[in-house]
Give the backbone structure.
Amino acid sequence: MLKIIKQCFEAILWNGRFVVVVAVVASMAAAIAIFYMTTVDVVYLVSHMLPYADPALTEEARKLLHDQTISHVVEVVDGYLLATFMLIFALGMYELFISDIDKAQNSKTSSKILVVESLDDLKARLAKVILMILIVTLFEEALNMHISTPLDLLYLGGAIALIGASLYLTHKAEAHEKGSEPPRD
């Protein structure tokens, strides 16, 4: 009797992992929504840029349109990166808790980006996307920044140096992980 209770309890615990499907579906819905919103932003961005070639446009108006367009392009990149983050998160959670995605395992186009082997693997992939989002956000803020003092310039330079250091350390960590893997037969 005790063995049957134990088996039933363990079955309930094991099947409890399927609650992750809620997070997977919600994350996929969020990714699709962000892809949609960002694509709509691109359509409006292109329509907003059309008067750029108008010869009647003053130099100041053209400069303003140029600066606004560059800022919007950076926002678009940020949106697509965030959507990609949500997509990787959804697929990774599914693979970790529910089942391997056979189509991704057998696909040459997946290039192992969407195939997640462990929680550390998922964290590493998400960390790279987060780093890219931070870089794009810094770039966006730098475009809108009004440097009025040498200290402002120093802050910007420090932020760029920190981003460079983080990219360097990320690259070194990847190289170290690849170097520490045992050779495959």
Observations:
- The longest helix spans residues 59-97.
- The chain has six helices and no strands.
- The mean pLDDT is 85.
